[in-house]
Amino acid sequence: QVQLVESGGGLVQPGGSLRLSCAASGIIFRIYVMGWYRQAPGKQRELVADITSGGSTSNADSVKGRFTISRDNAKNTVYLQMNSLKPEDTAVYYCSARIGARTDYWGQGTQVTVSS
Question: Which residues of the chain have pLDDT under 70?
Answer without folding.
Answer: none
